Amino acid sequence: MPTSAIQPKEVIPRNMGLEDQTLREAFQIQPHAVPLLERLRLVESLIQAGVRRFQVGSLVRSDRMPQMSHIEDLFNYVNHIPGMEIWALVFNFRGLKRAMDSGFTHVALSASLSAIHSRRNLGCTVEHGVARCRDMAAEALTQGLTVRMGLQCAFGGPMLKPPEPMHLLQWLMPFHSMGVQRLALADTAGRATPNRITANLEYLHKRLPGSELGLHLHGDQQQLTSNLEAAYSGGAHWLDATLLGRGGCPFLPSEPPANLPLRQSAEFLAEKGMETGVDLGRLEKAETLLETILSNRRVRAGY
């Protein structure tokens, strides 16, 4: 039966968490680094708005991606605050070692299912990228870290048709079997549809018991509104989001689609009766600050 014909039953989670990824997503597509002080101000503003779960950036070489410099400093700034959950994205064992040496207890791993995107973003084949993540996951779990595994282009991407649920399961099952509970589907290229989201979530919920399934959504406003409803009805455990929907993958062959906005996510969940802890009034201050930071960078760069 075609995936589009699947009509899953509504699965309502007890709650849906929100993970803010502004510090990585909004800045990784900037042509120049954003000063640490400005990023610290943004972190403080987000914390004041009630955000408690962050991805502070990617632990990659700063000479190759200066936008992700000083990630350890961001971590140290947030880590002393009670109740915070702080994630770093790592792509190789060098990054994993940096995470462990710096005191991170939560690491996110990610591999792309698009051969073209995997080459551009990770410098390897799909198979190599997933295998490397399996090896890193095993090491991280041995060291007592909490691990998240994500599949980029999980709803299709450059030269990649939307993978069927059974194929997503084949990629994720080894991680589930070794004890990785947090598993994410990333719509990197903005190809997801409500039917595809609900079908994938229903299929994976049944076959990955005990796992927490999250979504990293991209797209235009209308698309994100529909897909947000599908994520809720399909039983997603958490959503990634950014201030004002800023960010996107710089390694796509075309202009990257927008992220899911944090405000839109918080308002949606509040309407569903869920407590997000996000203060929308203070969130507006964080949004304004981000706009100011990005505007200043554009002016200084001459565009």
SSE blueprint:
Layout: E1 17-20, H1 22-28, H2 36-48, E2 53-58, H3 71-79, E3 85-89, H4 93-102, E4 106-112, H5 115-122, H6 126-142, E5 146-152, H7 165-178, E6 182-186, H8 194-207, E7 212-216, H9 221-234, E8 238-241, H10 262-271, H11 280-301
Parallel strand pairs: 1-8, 2-3, 3-4, 4-5, 5-6, 6-7, 7-8
What does this entry look like structurally?
- The chain has 303 residues and is an alpha/beta fold.
- It has a single domain, classed as TIM Barrel (Alpha-Beta Barrel).
- 46% of the residues lie in helices and 14% in strands.
- An eight-stranded parallel β-sheet has the order 1-8-7-6-5-4-3-2.
- The protein starts with 16 loop residues before the first strand and ends with a helix.
* Secondary structure tally: strands: 8
Count of individual domains: 1
How does the overall form come out from the CA principal axes? globular
Strand order of the largest sheet: 1-8-7-6-5-4-3-2
Q: Average pLDDT value?
A: 92
Largest sheet, strands/sense/barrel:
8 strands, parallel
H/E topology pattern: EHHEHEHEHHEHEHEHEHH
Strand content: 5-15%
Class based on secondary structure composition and strand pairing: alpha/beta
Task: Specify the CATH class.
Answer: Alpha Beta
* CA radius of gyration: 18 Å
For CATH, the homologous superfamily is named as Aldolase class I
Helix content: 40-55%
Low-confidence stretches: 1-12, 299-303
Distance between the termini: 50 Å
How many H/I helical runs? 11
CATH topology: TIM Barrel
Q: Any idea what the CATH architecture is?
A: Alpha-Beta Barrel
